[in-house]
Amino acid sequence: MRRIGTWLGTVVLAALISGTVGWASASGVSASVGPLPGAGAWLADDLVAGRLDPATAAPSEVAAFFAELTGAQGQRLAEEHPLVVGNLDGAPVRLRYAANASAGDQVLAYDPRGRGLVARVVGDLDHAAHVAVIVPGSDIDASRFDRTVRWATDLQERAGDDTAVIAWADYTTPSGIGLEMATGRLAEAGARRLTRLTEGLDAVGRPDPSLFCHSYGSVVCGLAADDVDACDIVVMGSPGMRADDVTALGTDARVWAAKAPDDWIDRVPNVELLGLGHGADPASPGFGANVLPADDVPAHSAYFTPGTSTLTAFAAIAGGGLS
Predict the structure, then answer these.
(1) Residue 50: count of CB within 10 angstroms of its CB
(2) What are the average pLDDT values for consecutive 10-residue runs of the chain, which has 323 residues?
(3) Ordered domains of the chain (ranges, CATH)
């Protein structure tokens, strides 16, 4: 009977997606891969040649490379190779901001390929005692980034000046409601990028971050959990983390979950079969996460709304004050 129930749940999931807009092609959304734009010119630069390949260097190697440069040399590389320096986890934060200045204020990463990838910092990342990262869900890219920045701003203001928040849309999210939302393909690529982000923060001496993962972003965080360098993983409106329970995540981070009573995500079956679905509900009692109150959250995208119990709890976690 249990197998039949799981099978039926998967069928329901398929029906929910296909009945809304039809199945999207599995290859319809492509993660940004390959060399960074401008990598060829970077490798040909006399200051760089043979010393740092951005395609293969670990964030710790990036940090070591820039530590050997003079301030003027680092600034020249940021000016002449902005798309490389601006996306190098492990490079000094101030140089990444300088490289990405044309894309906005305190932009930590910007990749114009495809729909565009971007990460922006709210607060003083270089001197923050606490760091938080917001990992958004579907339909977020460089042109639809304002909401994530607003969430980061509200969280940082509530957490205080000693906390910096990164609005991190630096992975390719599913577009629309379709097959990509029900599979983990894009989340797997996102998990690798998220892990590298935290390694880069560590390489430049920043504190281990708290991760705040919304909707499909919680799938990313679940897949990254056993590798990512984080002190807290907070999921909200989650379709699942591709794990049966907290133990299966393989993380030492504290795991928190919130789900509003009227969140439409409750209509998505918590199953995972043949690559479809994302598994157990992290807010369910059996999962083992610390469940946060969310009764006053009115909708799926309202967990960061000022005045809600969730934003109050998120700010306490981000600021290191909730255990």
Answers:
(1) 6
(2) 40 41 43 77 94 96 98 98 97 98 97 94 98 97 96 98 98 86 92 98 98 97 97 97 97 98 91 81 97 97 98 97 75
(3) 2-22+112-318 (3.40.50.1820), 38-105 (no CATH)
